[in-house]
Amino acid sequence: MTDSITQIADLIDPAVYAPIVSYELQKALRFTPLAQVDNTLVGNSGDTLHFPKFTYMGDAEDVAEGQPIPEDKLGTKDASVTVKKAAKGTGITDEAVLSGYGDPIGESQKQLGLAMANKIDNDLLAVAKTGTQKVTMTADVKGVQAGLDVFNEEDDSPIVLVVSPKTASAIRKDAIEKKIGSEVGANELVKGTYLDVLGVQIVRSRKLADTEAIFVKASQTSPALKLVMKRGINIESQREAKTATTHIYATEHYAAYLYDDTKVVVGTISASASSSSASTGK
């Protein structure tokens, strides 16, 4: 328990220093902006949300004159997601608050918020990686096209490709050489979008290895990812007089869900320029 409490020894004992730098996430949030927030469970009983879908009855067939028209059933299938609780806490002694440098209480509250947001982002990444549509691609324009070819829909919804910084640089280099890449302006879906290649917005994230890539089609009518909320972030504090320590806790009840598998393509970066191939995994 003691190891989780911030004491004066954990902070800089102030002398003459420049203003302390607040912590920023090095692995920035990338997937949360691509998810649609579903508040159906907020304020309602239950912790499981069902997603029923109609199944396709099949294509029409040729029918000869006078022959009966074949019939097929319109069916449904059901998927569900159950919310969970994520939590993080810290404790700060009075000595750390009074004698330490900066604003430990304010920084703790900020970092708790970052910790919760980063957990949600990681969960959305994890469910995106479960997508069944796969592509083996190269880190260049040809590889981006290979990923695009997997999508079996012809709508013009914008597509985001999330890759590592190294992979993004390789794609950018090839796009510049081919004079295909362009800067992304006000229509960027994720803040800090690197560039646009073949209509795909390239986004860098250190959360992905150099061999990983995730294509996400950002459809407004049928999102790829959903963030099902039961209760938003809640921060509480508790005073422990015996040790003159303030404990701060953050909790959030939610579930990350791959809502539409057809809107995600999971890519594997190959070093071979001739290895781009795709499969739907269906």
Brief digest:
The protein has 282 residues and is an alpha/beta fold. The protein has a single domain, classed as phage-related protein like domain (phage-related protein like fold, Alpha-Beta Complex), CATH 3.90.1690.
Tell me the fraction of residues in β-strands, as a range.
Answer: 25-35%
H/I helix tally: 4
Number of strands: 14
Distance between the termini: 49 Å
Secondary-structure element order, as H and E? EEEEEHHEHEHEEEEEEE
- What's the gyration radius in Å? 24 Å
Q: Low-confidence segments, ≥5 residues, pLDDT <50?
A: none
What would you call the structural class?
alpha/beta
Give the spatial strand order of the biggest sheet. Answer: 8-9-7-10-13-6-14
What is the global morphology?
flat
CATH topology: phage-related protein like fold
The portion of residues assigned to helices is: 10-25%
* Number of spatially distinct domains: 1
Q: What oligomeric arrangement do these chains adopt?
A: single chain
- CATH class (first level) name: Alpha Beta
For the record, the CATH architecture stands as Alpha-Beta Complex
CATH superfamily: phage-related protein like domain
Write down the overall mean pLDDT: 82
The profile of the biggest β sheet is:
7 strands, mixed
Protein name: Putative major head protein, phage associated
Pfam families: Phage_capsid_4
